[in-house]
Specification:
Number of domains: 1
Radius of gyration: 21 Å
GO molecular function: zinc ion binding
InterPro entries: Znf_MYND (IPR002893)
Oligomer: single chain
Organism: Hypholoma sublateritium (strain FD-334 SS-4)
Largest sheet: 5 strands, antiparallel
Shape: globular
Number of strands: 16
Strand content: 25-35%
Low-confidence stretches: 27-33, 326-335
Mean pLDDT: 79
Protein name: MYND-type domain-containing protein
Keywords: Metal-binding, Zinc, Zinc-finger
């Protein structure tokens, strides 16, 4: 079996192939014009985040040099938090560092996907919730960009020692889940929400309470730290959540007609992860170095089956040794 094929399943005259890369001639989800790096950088630098100590909103410039996760509005705040921060600060081997998170939020297509998924999850397409903060958790990880390496390690065909200098990694989203505001909204998060909410309505020249402002807790593999960022839900995202509420269309590779697939956060995650996977030239700036030590998560008891299942593989059908042209992207696991 070729290295890029994970498994095959035979059903009658058809063979379904699960692969880590799209077949030749398959139009990947990353097709289209790339975003200039300078535009991503400019937007990223304009993002407002909260100081890890005082929770004051600011355009981040000062980031912990060791963990590269905690951000501060001043050196004074950094010094004041150190007695607590030192217990969680570590030079992470595979964490999606702050720069990757802010880059993710700087890509308009991804930001809109996050907004619409947020709106769908909390039912904002049915009823707007404006009087209290809503918060969602987004789990992130860095995986080997060449996914054949992942399956070679999990199968035992290779070991991390085969990659002494590490490999190229890519940011991957693992899960979206709503959180209970009554449990997780502490004074710091409430301050972030209130400031973002006020600025959003000033920007739109509308009274406070007309537009939705949410929060996303980014939980990153390899660190206990959390990055909380505000998410101002655009009208376009509400409209999109209404559209997908009835399901999304996909092509059945055997029957060759469209089928309706219920929308869920898994569908959104799959779309984003596949775009990142297919961005071979790193136009999105969501790739990073993955050291040898980080590869041990693909070995033995370290393997997280859920995370493995969330990898953006592609499933397509063949008949009589020929690929059926209606290849279907696998949107991260069963729908």
């Amino acid at each position: 079996m070729p290295a890029d094929i994970v498994e095959t399943t035979v059903m009658g005259d058809f063979t379904f192939v699960k692969a880590v890369t799209p077949p030749d001639g398959y139009n990947t989800s990353s097709d289209g014009p790339s975003i200039p790096a300078k535009d991503i950088k400019a937007y990223r630098e304009s993002l407002i985040i909260a100081c890890s100590f005082c929770h004051k909103s600011f355009r981040y410039k000062l980031v912990c040099a060791k963990c590269k996760v905690a951000a501060y509005c001043s050196k004074e705040c950094q010094k004041k938090q150190w007695p607590l921060h030192k217990f969680v600060c570590q030079e992470s081997k595979a964490a999606a560092k702050l720069k990757l998170v802010t880059t993710l939020m700087s890509i308009p297509r991804f930001e809109l996907t996050l907004m619409s998924t947020f709106a769908f999850t909390f039912g904002l397409h049915k009823k707007m919730i404006l009087d209290r903060p809503l918060i969602m958790q987004c789990d992130l990880a860095v995986d080997a960009a060449d996914m054949s390496i992942i399956f070679s390690l999990t199968s035992g065909k290779q070991t991390p020692d085969d990659y002494p200098d590490g490999v190229e990694g890519m940011l991957q989203l693992k899960w979206f889940s709503p959180l209970d505001p009554a449990v997780v909204i502490d004074p710091g998060r409430r301050k972030i929400w209130e400031e973002a909410r006020a600025k959003n309505h000033v920007k739109r020249r509308a009274p406070i309470g007309k537009y939705v402002t949410g929060l996303i807790d980014f939980h990153m593999e390899g660190t206990d730290q959390v990055i909380t960022m505000p998410l101002n839900i655009a009208d376009q995202a509400i409209a999109l959540s209404r559209m997908v509420a009835g399901g999304v269309c996909a092509q059945d590779p055997v029957l060759r007609h469209e089928i309706n697939v219920p929308f869920s956060p898994r569908v959104a995650i799959g779309t984003m992860d596949m775009i990142i996977r297919d961005d071979k030239k790193n136009h999105l700036r969501l790739r990073t170095h993955m050291p040898k030590e980080a590869l041990y998560k693909y070995v033995g008891n370290n393997i997280n089956e859920h995370d493995l299942d969330m990898l953006p593989t592609t499933t397509y059908a063949t008949k009589d040794g020929k690929r059926i042209k209606t290849a279907v992207p696998r949107l991260n696991g069963p729908y």
